[in-house]
Protein 1
Amino acid sequence: MIYKKFISELYQTFEQIDIYKLFREFHNQPELVAEKILKEISGEKAKKMFREEIDYIIENELKDFENILSILRKKEEIIYYERSIAALSCVLVFWMWDKKIKLPDESLSRIIESILLGTLGYRIIDMYDDSGMMGSEVIYVGNYLIHLHEKIVIEVFGAEDSLEVVNKYFKLYAEVEFAEKKNRWIGCPFSWEDPLKLGYKAAPFFSIMESLGKLNGMTETQLKNLQTGMTAFAAVLQMLDDISDAKDDLSNGIESLVMSGFYKAHPRGTVITEVLVEEFLNQEGLLKFYETTDNLFSISRNCFKENKDDLLLLCTELYNLNFNKNIEVT
């Protein structure tokens, strides 16, 4: 796997970066800290190579679905997720090396492949459910990719250690999606008091992280902190995704937490426009959004601090700093 070899080189480069020096130099410009780190470790090159790895996997292992996957991968939603998965894979492997988690090269390559397959599979099904994208046949492609993801996790970590973990996270994912789809055109089934649930959509990544944590000998408390920290971080990403896709989601009957109450104010049949969304998402709504995401960042930060997990803490701080730099709350 060429990509795995490349991120090994990235990690060696990453170890040489003086993070503290960067923070001192750009303490009031957090986006430049992230930019400098990504430049040093060739982040864009990593994403390009990851996409080439996907080409290879589809050509050699998913030949029967090559045509439909080729069509799907040209869609902006999938391109965005592939780029995100590339960054996610780097974080995962960096974390493994930082924790000195030993796995054969072949197993590590397969874990990276499973992240791709699982995340892509869930995303394809979600896109079809939300917007009716393409024909219903994409559901079977998505389910097959999820099955391959789970198969790889079980083979790498063993059924005894991973089957329960895989089932746990699939159940959490299914509960969230069921609640969302059951309430289509009715309203948001989630509450501002419990936004953590939104993070359960990252099921494939969580099952791998917990399996690795168990392999590393983490205690139950450490595993719980790992799960909660990742869930909080993923919930922030989901809320950001929801606010950027608000118009499309509402047009397809999905009222996300950031737009909760919209259908009460605007009954079904209302022509949903960007102006209408912006008017609904007023100053008060944006403030609530900011306060909630800020609290989620705090939950994630505290969990990683308690686990003394510097790498995941660094990722959280960089994202939080850049988030605060770019959002406007007036």
Protein 2
Amino acid sequence: MNSATLFKDKMTFDEMAEAYKAEHPFFAPNRRTVGTFAKEHGYILMKQAINNINHSFYLKQQ
């Protein structure tokens, strides 16, 4: 499976971890490795609080 087909403009951590696992099958994804992977592919981490619940997701830089 090609990880380039898995990328969207807005991705959650779980979706980004799946893309990381597709490209690096022998490494376990964690916050640090997935964040570095996202940054390499042009994403930034956004945090948003909705009803006092923090949500984080990755956005593709324009």
